[in-house]
Amino acid sequence: MCFFYYLCAMNDVQQPINAFTSVLLRWFDAYGRELPWRQTRDPYAVWLSEIILQQTRVEQGRPYWERFMQRWPTAEALARASEDEVLRQWQGLGYYSRARNLHFAAGQIVAMGGFPQTIEGIRSLKGVGDYTAAAIGSIAFDLPVAVVDGNVYRVLARHFGIDTPINTTEGKKEFTALAQSLLPPKEASRFNQAMMDFGATQCTPQSPRCLLCPLQDGCVALREGRVGQLPVKLKTLKVKERRLTYIYIRCQGQTAIRRRPAGDIWQGLYEPWLTDSVPSGAVLLRQNQKHVLTHRIIYADFWLWETDEKPSLPDEYIWIDEADIERYALPRLVELLLNEIQKRYD
Hints:
The protein has 346 residues and is α+β, with helices and mostly antiparallel strands. It is 45% helix and 14% strand. The protein has 14 helices and six strands. Strands 4-5-1-3-2-6 form a six-stranded mixed β-sheet, with helices on one face. Helix 10 packs across helix 12 (188-202). It is globular, with a radius of gyration of 24 Å. The N and C termini lie far apart (60 Å).
């Protein structure tokens, strides 16, 4: 059902919208999550949390937020850090472009003379999209702009019975207009956080708590038995496979690594020798290690080569003491390789 058709067909639009919002806010007061970045209106702290949580669960992201805040409590401090330091601190979260954008945006904030206080200004920060700008603006500055993310799409699609695909231009406009119409202008922060939490803990993707839902009486999807079918998303992503062969070289207490170039996955992170030719004497540690990314599936072979003479490698490789490898930011896949080596020698 198209939301706009739904609105036009109703005699009194404001009544159900107000009912939805008031019930949602009461639920949030009782069951909203207690999160450390909600104890402050510091826009830097809020921004940092939103960037970390873009592709990360709250439970995984919280310790990273705490460590970042402890090490770099201000945008000025973060801007002074090197990109390598930021990537190393980010290690394990994945989607490393977020860390690079975070570091760059810290420099933007410093250049602006402080954190921007308008949606347009916040949106101009590298790595900040419409959702993140709305979240920061509403939470830190009470700007009356609704957030629209996966949780919001799901809650609204189910409650109002909307089957417009969420990953289409039409769907994005429709859901954004609906979310904005539901938002109480003077309580934007509370409403947006309520929508986030309701989708994350109540109206979940799998096994939503429908029988205990305070909005169940007005939920179209529940009434029509379509909870599992909404929201609708068109399948357009083609996942490609990629194969990598890593050789970890041990030579007189040293190993060779390189920094991955721009324009490819894991830009700026470090990796051991990547090659198509396995040298004689190398030992296979693991074959076809599967690693899933958003747009591709990687299958990697891990090899260990112990030699007394340093081989000739491309110029981008550097030799470091093995004990120092923890100082470099590594992709998760390379961490798995190091774990295999550690198992071999434990």
